[in-house]
Amino acid sequence: MRANPTSIQALFLALLSIGLSIPTTSARAACAEIPFANNTTAEADQLNNYLECLAPLNSPNFTGDVGIGTTAPVSLLHLADTSTAGGELTIESDYATSARAGINFNTPYQGTMHTGSITSSFYSTPGMVLTAPRDLASLGTYGIAFNSNSGATRMFIDSNYGRVGIGTMTPSYTLYVNGTSGGTNEWTSTSDARLKKNILPIKGALTIVENLQGVRFQWRSANERRVGKALKLSTGTKQIGFIAQSVRKVVPEAVTVSNDPDAIMGVQEAKLTPILVEAVKQLAAINKAQSLKISQLERRLSVVERKDRVRTADDGQGTALLSRQR
Q1: Which pLDDT belongs to residue 214?
Q2: Which of 46, 34, 35 is nearest to 2 (CA)?
Q3: How far apart are CA 233 and CA 225, in angstroms?
Q4: What is the rounded CA–CA span in Å between residue 263 and residue 255?
Q5: Digit-coded pLDDT (tens) for 208-258
Q6: pLDDT tens profile 255-306
Q7: Residue 192: phi, psi to the nearest 5?
Q8: Residue 130 forms beta bridges with which residues?
Q9: CA-based torsion, 242, 243, 249, 251: positive or negative
Q10: Angstrom distance (rounded) from CA 224 to CA 239
Q11: Are the CB atoms for 269 and 254 separated by under 8 Å?
């Protein structure tokens, strides 16, 4: 391998200008004096020796940070752009197919290095991937968090169970929103008959409804409750709903329990709708039967009244005849 020494020295100085440093002052002087064979070209081993004068980032001899676009880097690698366009970092893979570009983050744990990454691929799914270093249930809240500048967690994805928490790092369900939520369309629940078996009608729906009790209430403030202290509850407004413990005695299928130490109960109110439908149908059947009985009673009463009128008329005629005979 041959190389122009002037170009090598220019590269050397350029690398120095972006923040790479020579270990010591004496080493800097020594490296600057590395001779080149015949003063016109450099042999491969001489070139390697020359470049080794620059302390790499992972070397224990590295004494500074690397700055690109800045002479005052504040981290191992600091990229700065003072133009109005702003600064960008581009990582590119020019392989034709199955190419992937990204950044790996290696962190040690108990002697083993674990890698988290951000990768992008045009050819393979899902395209853009954010990967946690590992899946470990024993660590509890372990996964990928999206935090505010102040450090508050806005969204969290549990890498072990795949749960997503909005406003919480401890989602107890596949999707848990700690706060309010809304939308422009109804929530759709899968209900295809081809997915179901052991289908049975709901019996005694009216009795079930009679045993349910709707209540008005207000949420306890955080210092008033022993569980769920991190929940964002609308403590300042009046509420209407059910008590999960009471509903569980009547319709246990509509009650859930969070998978955490607090074991907070919730009510899936949508599951009460089929019961209400059947209860209304039961009331409609009762009303229809009662209407039929009322119609029958009205007809019987009409007959009795007609007979009574005839009897009254007959009694009147008999009284008049007796009067004339006298």
Answers
A1: 96
A2: 46
A3: 11
A4: 12
A5: 999 999 999 999 999 999 999 989 899 989 999 999 999 999 999 999 998
A6: 999 888 899 999 999 999 999 999 999 999 999 999 999 999 999 988 888 8
A7: -75, 130
A8: 118
A9: positive
A10: 17
A11: yes
Dist CA 282 CA 273 (whole Å): 14
> What's the predicted TM-score (pTM) here?
0.62
| pLDDT bucket at 313, cuts 50 / 70 / 90 | low
What is the rounded distance in angstroms from the CA atom of residue 96 to the CA atom of residue 45? Answer: 34
Burial (0-12, 13-18, 19+ Cβ within 10 Å), 61: exposed
CB 19 within 8 A of CB 65: yes
How is residue 135 written in tokens? 């899946």
Alpha-carbon Rg of the chain, whole angstroms? 41
Q: What is the 3-state secondary structure (H, E, C) of the chain?
A: CCCCHHHHHHHHHHHHHCCCCCCCHHHHHHHHCCCCHHHCCCCHHHHHHHHCCCCCCCCCCCCCCEEECCCCCCCCEEECCCCCCCCCCCCCCCCCCCCCEEEEEEEEECCEEEEEEEEECCCCCCCEEEECCCCCHHHCCCEEEEECCCCCEEEEEECCCCCEEECCCCCCCCEEECCCCCCCCCCCCCCCHHHCCCCCCCCCHHHHHHHCCCEEECCCCHHHCCCCCCCCCCCCCCEEECCHHHHHHHCHHHEEECCCCCCCEEECHHHHHHHHHHHHHHHHHHHHHHHHHHHHHHHHHHHHHHHHHHHHHHHHHHHHHHHHHC
Give the integer Cα–Cα distance in Å for 92 and 72: 27
What was the pLDDT predicted at 115?
84
pLDDT digits (tens, 9 = 90+) for 170-184: 888 889 999 888 888
Q: For tokens 């660590």, name the residue.
A: 139
Sign of CA dihedral 91, 162, 143, 228: positive
Placement of tokens 């270093």 in the chain = 133
The β-bridge relationship of strands 175-177 and 164-166 is parallel
pLDDT tens profile 58-74: 455 455 677 777 778 88
How much is the average pLDDT of 191-215?
A: 95
